[in-house]
Amino acid sequence: MTDNLNTSQFHSVHLHEEDCKGCTICVTGCPAEAIRVRDGKAHIIEEKCIDCGECIRRCPNKAKYANSNELSDLELFARRAALIAPAVYAQFNLHYTTEQIHEAFKSIGFTDVVDVSPDALSVSRATAKLFESGRPLPKPLISSSCPTVIKLIEVRFPALIDNILPLLPPVEICARRVRRQIEKELKPGERLGIFFISPCPAKITVARSPVGYDATALTGAFSFANLYLPLITKLREIRDEQKKKVAALQQSEKLAAVQKADASSAARLLENENTAVPDGLTWGRESGEAEYVARYLSHPERFCWITSCGIKQIIETLEGIENGEYSCYDFAEIAACSGGCLGGPLMIKAISESGAHMRMRIRERAAASEKACEDLDPDAIALSKDIAPRPARQLSTDFGQARRMMEQLEEIAAQLPGLDCGSCGAPNCRALAEDIVRKQAHLEDCVTIMKARYEELLFGKKKKKMSGTENPEKDNEHDNDRQ
Amino acid sequence: MTFDYIVSGDDFSSAGTASQDIKKRLQQLGVPVPVVKRTAIAMFEAEINMVIHAHGGEAHVTIDEHKITIVMEDHGPGIPDIDLAMQPGYSTAPESARDMGWGAGMGLPNMKKNSDFMKIESTVGVGTKVTMELNIT
To answer: Residue A477: in which H helix or E strand, if any?
Structure first.
């Protein structure tokens, strides 16, 4: 099992080398500037990566993927639990019931299927308790549920580490709960495997290298994208089977309406019945978490929060928090993906559709989640390990050396054309300058500079703006080459 | 090592870009996190002030071995009474700035709080020069 498992502590993104054309689309699209094309293939700079999965989304050749467990790994375990996050339920059309979804998971190899939404509610409840504990808290507290946000803070906003909500994420609380329950039922020699069905590479990584706590109760994680096809195939079989048996399979007339009527009238029908029935399921979408925290407070009207999602927007928000612009807010619900977990890189449905599914599924799940939600002491689910700054930006650990390198960097950057074309394999000209200073690239990697050199050699032309061609030492090198 | 920036006037959307750039550079240099944070806040407030009151100006940041010196210079209206301007809550920000959440009168006090040394030189009708220093320890 471990053979094909990524061992990076930072990310779960892997590359099908044979499919990578070295096109640099992932390089220029990476919000952490963590990818370089070297020798024609995309490489991740480990310590810079925040595991957001943007490269998986962008790769036109589908060469990037999230490396996760495979169904054959389940054979090692007598009991095999799948933990399902709210956003995953929302990937299935409404004519599939929760029970049918659970049945499909069982038919592809799991023995136990567990909904994570009650644990999301438990976290919100404990967060509310924390707010009412009278402890001094930094403002705003930043949700700890998105690992990419934590990693972004480690790399780029280390001053905000203290603002991270010091509570375990719902999936870990759920995994611990499930482990406690099922372990009691195991016979001697039997093994228990607990797997998260993940919307993103970051939560796959957390199943192996958690941030903010040491031991995880998870055994591993599956990419939802990899499971979708077997699941939907099974779901169709399950549904066909039931159709044959009884015509009255529809649980209610409303669900039948969803099947038959056009989507909008069905939505209206359900919405009428379900206005404001809150449920842990909404955790997977923007603002879902904060609304729950508010709900458990004795004075929800005094609770102020901001939400932010989508990598570009969250960077702006974190800048704002660092500048002290948002210190009047109690809570910041920040998720790396646009649309929250619904927009995860390993999700199948467009947010517009899965968002509608989520709204409508609320009714189905509300009572169950409420009942299963635990009243936990914040200290009992506190993060147990310091989150450490990751100085990936630092040029050198020696301040004097770092200053010299920055001066060189400025000189080199001034020679580069500033086109930010990515052809050199770095995301932009400044990043190339930094790579050169770090001795990981050469000035000649710049195609514009290279072209000017060739033109000079072939035609004796000297372009005005290419000051990079005026380095006598380098010019001599090329003269020698020609001889 | 000095970095120079033009802070464009009346453009709230780009206000903060200079302090953001400095923050990145300080991280590249490995300056301790709390110092980076204080520098970013002090400079950000100064940038915002420049946009609100003085139609922009210039920022010069020098990074020496032991300290960061931020000089913010504008050709705005000047500050008639610096002591008054330094009082928390005092503000002459226009309505447009207040609508955007600025103008709470905390800009200068915040700059002072976050820097180790601050000097304001201002002449009414000519402009204002704010010098802030932060020790790198």
So the answer is: helix A472-482
Residue A455 · residue A461 · CB < 8 Å: yes
Scanning every residue of chain A, which has its alpha carbon at the shortest distance from the alpha carbon of B37?
A159
Question: What distance in Å separates residue B111's CA from the closest CA in chain A?
Answer: 11
pTM to 2 decimal places: 0.84
| Phi (first) and psi of residue A303, to 5 degrees | -85, 120
CB atoms within 10 A of CB A168: 28
DSSP for A120-175? Answer: HHHHHHHHHHHHHT-----SSEE-SS-HHHHHHHHHH-GGGGGGB--B--HHHHHH
The closest CB to that of A403, out of B1, B24, B36, belongs to B1
Instruction: Give the model confidence (pLDDT) of B59-88 as tens digits.
Output: 999 999 899 999 999 998 999 888 888 888
**Cβ separation B40–A322 shorter than 8 A:** yes
DSSP string, A95-126: TS-HHHHHHHHHHTT-SEEEESHHHHHHHHHH
Q: How far apart are CA B109 and CA B85, in angstroms?
A: 9
With cut-offs at 50, 70 and 90, classify the pLDDT of residue A463: low
DSSP 8-state code for residue A355:
H
Q: Which of B57, B53, B54, B46 is nearest to B16 (CA)?
A: B46
Alpha carbon distance A81, A176 (integer Å): 12
> Could A394 and B36 be called an inter-chain contact, meaning their C-beta atoms sit closer than 8 Å?
no
Distances (CA, A) of A31 to A25, A254, A282, A314, A422: 12, 44, 27, 11, 14
Question: Domains of chain A (ranges plus CATH)?
Answer: 2-66 (3.30.70.20), 71-381 (no CATH), 399-482 (1.10.15.40)
Nearest one of A289, A319, A33, A178 to B18, comparing CA atoms: A319
ipTM of this complex prediction, to 2 decimal places: 0.82
CATH architecture of B2-135: 2-Layer Sandwich (3.30)
Query: CA nearest B25: which of B63, B65, B60?
Result: B63
Diameter over CA atoms, chain A: 87
d(CA B57, CA B80): 19
Interchain contact, A403 vs B29, CB within 8 Å: yes
